[in-house]
Amino acid sequence: MAKKILIVLLATCASLGVVRGADFPAETLVLTVLNPPELVILAAAPAPDLADLLLAEPVFLPQPDPAILDPFIGFRPAADPGKALFDVNLMALVALNIADYVSTREALKYPGLHEFNPLMAPFAKSPAAFAAVKIGTTALTYWCMKALFKKNRTVAWVLTTASNLVLSYALANNLQMIQRARAR
Fold first, then answer.
1. Which of 56, 129, 135 is nearest to 100 (CA)?
2. Does 36 or 148 have the greater pLDDT score?
3. Taking the domains of the chain in order of start, what are their residue ranges?
4. Whole-angstrom distance, CA of residue 149 vs CA of residue 83
């Protein structure tokens, strides 16, 4: 493959010299790849001759820093994709709890709507108390699921997914109740 690239490049340089004639730059640098990791610079005369290019002394350049060439060098996949996906599931749990809090606070602004969860109902009347309890239960659930994941991945996945489904249902119900209250 390297030989084919060199031949094509040399033929292109030779044809440029013939086609462009006198306006060809006095000192032209021709870049080619002989060995994939090494870059070679061949110096050409004003009107490059194929024999001169073939006999030119190659100049080997130092290897560039891979961090410059690869912008994604710091973004390698996690060693354990299952753990990364579980962390995403936990982030969904946190996001759903936040959305549930916001939608519940919005729903409580309308007359006739109240907190359906009997454990949270006493705290729902005070925004600060409701936020504190919601933050505490969310943090406790998060850390318990992380600890459970270290001991039994399957159970942690099942419980976190079930919790996300219940929170999704509660969020959808809140949004539906808000929509009905606004329509009245």
1. 135
2. 148
3. 2-69, 81-183
4. 8
